[in-house]
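Chapter review: from sequence to fold.
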Amino acid sequence: MKTRIVEGITEITSKEDIIFHIYDGEAEFNALNKNYWDAPNTIIGNYEEMVLPAPVAEVIEVGFAKQEVKDSTSDATKKVMALPIKNSFSIGEKVFLKVKTLGLIGKKLKVEVRQAFEKQLTEKDQKVDALSVMEMTVGKITQSEDAQNKYEASNLKALENTALKEMILEPTTDDEKKKWKDILAKSKDKKIKLYFHVEVLDAEGDVFYKGDDVNDPKNFSFQKPFELTEGGTCFCGRDFTVDEVTSIIHQLRDSESSIKKNYGYELFSGNNCKFPLRDKTYEKFTETINVIFNKYEINTCIRKIHFLAQSYEESAYFSTSQEKGSETYLKSRYYYPYIGRGIIQLTHSGEKIGEMGYKQYFEFLNRTDYKTSYDLLNKDIRYAFDASGYFWFRGKLLSKGDFFKGKYPNSKGEKKLFPKKKVGKYTTIDINLVADDDNVEQITFLVNGQNMYNLDGRKKSTKKLKEIFNYEKCINKK
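The token string follows.
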């Protein structure tokens, strides 16, 4: 028997009950030749007398990370989740505290986020309680059902040596939030500078910390501190905060007196919307919209503007997630019970040739119960938003061909060509690409079909959102 072990710390028992440990590197062991051992920097000798290197235990990197969706390197048709550590986020963003390790699976860590350089949130070198975690376990996320559903096997394998803790970069009380923002406003460069201090709580031996402070290697980002910012007017590549979403929706409602009079500032207050009360909050709206924006690459100001403008109209100004009408009217529709649901309404069963609807979306979720669970899109905000992001990213079902030629010209009078994605013998288009072209009419056609329902309202919402976003200052504006 010949066994090859790749990078990692591995313990394997052969048929002859020969146990061997592999350290970080590559090694081969041939059980038929018990005197043979070949690995870098290892003396070849009788296996019974061999002293193997001690398992390596390291803390490699610590920081805040944001979940991103990227193309798979092994399969161009698939997406994988990534969690790159970044050196700056704004107050109120939802992030993961991430610790990369080696040889510490199952071990508990303590991570303190400390004040760097000078007194701001607290005294220099003192921990910031709101951002520190007193205990987190390496590899724990890979055991959760949610992670197993969300990540591919390769992602889970990569996370085995990682500790993650989801958090929001803000204190718990309104008074403390105001205090943080006041501190930012008074600072010279409008930044709060912090660093990370990590400690393994239950190590069985020595742990090597790869921190960047020579005097205390348990300190990470000490030389180049993590920067907490207030956030700018540009929303490219970052999450919304609750305050920002609240302001956006309030300004949209304020812009039309009749809408403000009918709906006030309440979310999903329509009689036909079956969301539980916990889903009808600005906090839940913010959390859910950030998830789908990251998942479906709605990641620039102009993409967010167009998605919000279309969904604002489709959902009757964020008052409902289901097609309006009496029960008698809805039952008269030829596509009942697969009526429009979601903040961009998914319609039709998807069972007929040339249709894309509930069947395809549930298949995307690895579910087959669309015939009995279609109402989820009007009972759970996560599905109402996710189905809309799915439709936006996957797009309207189109005929064959490699490119879709726009039916409507953009602001420059051009009818652009957009690359299609193949779905069986049909094609679709990623509406993000049309949003990049800033073409409201073309997007409305792809979302609403030939009827172009309330096109004027969609144009007004798009214009208002550009004003709210201060789009002229967007870093990616063409």
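Two observations follow directly from the output. Residues 1-55 form one domain. The chain has three domains: 1-55, 58-229, 242-473.
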